[in-house]
Recover the amino acids of this structure.
């Protein structure tokens, strides 16, 4: 196999979920790489009115014909499917939006690709499809909808010749991340001196910097243009450092030069908390470049901490 | 394992898809077995106004709360999930109804079961999930949506303790079957002397009589009450005789005492036509009782042929 970084990325990319944290970073990486980027967005998404240069918006109102039209008009060399409804724990009233976001939209996208003869898909999976082992066992309903979509992808791969790479993500972080996740809570507490209530903290995390994740997406798209690549494959996108929650706090404390006040064990572990991470196959030829220490320093700098 | 036919079936059953060909026969079998049958039906389904004795109707308008309410009110000992949108070949405008019927409704049902503490599900799969082999390879989009639902079931089994048997069906037939399938075409041609246009006819079929299929559903429900039964398992429901399309026509001709005029080879095989059938595990302790010769004679008698 030739070095995938030397392969052509393609002129046009279609991105779903392009307004999410990873998605908007990916759009920037693609534009920087010289791609014309087409985004499939819901009408109420932020940024539909004034897209940046070389970014084109196609609206998705829930109809299959919206997606067919977007794929026909954008004629993408590769589709990056990041749109999803992420819920670590769901409630009964979230069943309908979760099936629509995580299965229906993806199926509409595959159908549209089959109609238009578009063959290359980079899909976003989750390590939560592999709870405490290396075969399918979903941590939560979210993970099971991701697996369900891969089964539908298997049909389109076999019957319509669509080629795909599933990138299974662990945790992500980076600048401009407004999601209420671990690092946001820790950084807030550095700012306010509040004492976060935490679980005992022995669960292992794999935090990848969003720039590394984006480079994995671009790398996968280049890899997919290799005819020796299997029709469908799944790879883990690891940040390269697996640490317990307590160890991650220690790295942040070292970067900040201060200790954090944390009430360890104040809350129980989540039901079906992932204590050990999936040990899936690495994306061939790609590796992360940003260490947690470097990434955390940039976050602290961003918030003047 | 004790003889499953000696096990208790339960007092109350909830059935989805109870107005379909197999579903309405299953409802009759359940009533005959002494069950109170609750049906989850769309408001426009036939028979919602005047259900037979011991049959109760719950309406499904597409909302998760409809299903939660139906399961709470019916408190079923076992749920039989037969509702699906069956399409051998789909068109682009059928993506939304297919995901809704084959994945969303089933997920709503599992969620409702988890909420109400209902633990037993008999689900309906298709041999088309296993195209020319014994591992998952979907013949069509329909089969991939069935597999996708099983992925979601895996989550509810693991996290909510729902126990399930997937019954994978091949082809079905029986009295009162108005579906435009093979036997209907053949019987029509016996009546009208029309010459059906057929494929070359070498594909192998496994036709099961609907009464045998219903006995498999009841048997599976009894089997599931055995604590030694795995949390989730899948079995093939074979009619017991595998024949090529040409051989099936010969059996019907013998039963009718007449030859059929058939234009063999006038149409091509379907794309991804199944030439060899899945050789899946048989439902333990169950076997079909009605031969094709007997079943066909009853069909001919029904139509005075």
């Amino acid at each position: 196999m030739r070095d995938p970084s030397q392969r052509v990325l393609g002129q046009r990319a279609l991105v779903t979920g392009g307004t999410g944290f990873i998605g908007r970073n990916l759009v920037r990486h693609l534009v920087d790489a010289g791609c014309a980027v087409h985004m499939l967005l819901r009408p109420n998404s932020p940024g539909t009115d004034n897209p940046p240069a070389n970014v084109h918006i196609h609206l998705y109102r829930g109809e299959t014909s919206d997606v067919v039209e977007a794929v026909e008009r954008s004629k993408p060399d590769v589709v990056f499917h990041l749109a999803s409804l992420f819920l670590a724990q769901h409630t009964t009233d979230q069943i309908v939006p979760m099936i629509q976001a995580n299965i229906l939209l993806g199926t509409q996208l595959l159908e549209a690709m089959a109609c238009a003869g578009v063959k290359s898909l980079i899909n976003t999976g989750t390590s939560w499809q592999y709870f405490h082992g290396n075969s399918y066992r979903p941590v939560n309903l979210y993970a099971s909808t991701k697996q369900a979509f891969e089964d539908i992808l298997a049909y389109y791969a076999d019957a319509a010749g669509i080629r795909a790479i599933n990138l299974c993500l662990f945790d992500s972080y980076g600048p401009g991340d407004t999601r209420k996740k671990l690092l946001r809570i820790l950084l807030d507490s550095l700012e306010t001196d509040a004492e976060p209530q935490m679980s005992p903290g022995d669960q292992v995390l794999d935090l990848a910097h969003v720039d590394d994740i984006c480079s994995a997406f671009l790398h996968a798209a280049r890899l997919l243009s290799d005819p020796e690549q299997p029709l469908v494959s799944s790879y883990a996108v690891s940040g390269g450092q697996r640490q317990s929650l307590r160890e991650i706090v220690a790295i942040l404390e070292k970067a900040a030069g201060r200790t954090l006040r944390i009430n360890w064990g104040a809350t129980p572990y989540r039901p079906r908390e992932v204590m050990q991470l999936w040990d899936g196959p690495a994306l061939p030829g790609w590796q992360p470049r940003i260490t947690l220490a470097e990434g955390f320093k940039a976050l602290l700098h961003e918030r003047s901490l």
In short: The domain at 8-173+207-237 of chain A is CATH 3.40.50.720 (Rossmann fold). The CA atoms of residues 38 and 74 of chain A lie 6 Å apart. The first helix of chain A runs from residue 21 to 32. Helices of chain A lie at 21-32, 64-74, 95-116, 141-160, 182-192, 210-224, 245-256, 292-302.
